[in-house]
Amino acid sequence: xxxxxxxxxxxxxxxxGGLERAxxxxxxxxxxxxxxxxxxxxxxxxxxxDAVLFxxxxxxxxxxxxxxxxxxxxxxxxxxxxxxxxxxxxxxxxASAASAWPHPVLDRLPRAVPFPVAVGAIAAAHGVAxxxxxxxxxxxxxxxxxxxxxxxxxxxxxxxxxxxAEIEGLVADIADKASLAxxxxxxxxxxxxxIASLRHETQHSRLFRS
Length: 210
Fold this sequence. Notes:
The protein has ten helices and no strands. The protein has 210 residues and is mainly alpha-helical.
C-alpha cells in the first residue's frame, strides 16, 4: 500500500501514458471512453505487457542476470520515446525510494530498470504474493489514469470513482492471469494507444510528460 500510494515519491502523476493525446484527438471523450481505453490497455496493451514483465521479475528476483534481461526487454518494448522515459524514470525512482526497506535485491536490479520490473522484483523480495502485488500495481495504474482523465476533463470525480468500481473485477482477473503468464504471453493490439503516445511527443500544449 505504501509503495503504490500516490504519495510514494516516484512522480507518476506527471505522466499520462498517451491518454492526454487521446483526449486531444477525440479518442477519449467521456467516462465511457475512458473505461474502454483502460480496458484495452489491461487486456491488449501496455498494462498487460507490464503485468507480464512484473510477473517475470517477481519470479527471477534472486537472479541478477535474469533481472537484467527482463529489464532490457521491458525498455525495448516501450513503443515511444516518452513511454521509454516514463517507465525508466518511474522504475529508477521506485527502486531509490524503496531503499527505505533495505534488501539485497536492490543491488541485483540494473540501474536502467523499467517500472514493472522494479516493483515486481522488490515485491517478491519482501514476500508479497505475485497476484496480490500485481493487483495493487494495476489498480494504482488505473487509478492514476482516472485521475488524469479527471484533470483532462473527460470525467468528474464521482464518475471517476464509478470507473474504478466497474473495472476492479477486470483488474483482479488480469492480475491473476499475469501472475501465471510467461514472457511468451507478451504482445498487444492497442494500436491507437501506441499512436497516441507517439503523437504526444509533438503536442505543443500539454499538462503531462507522456
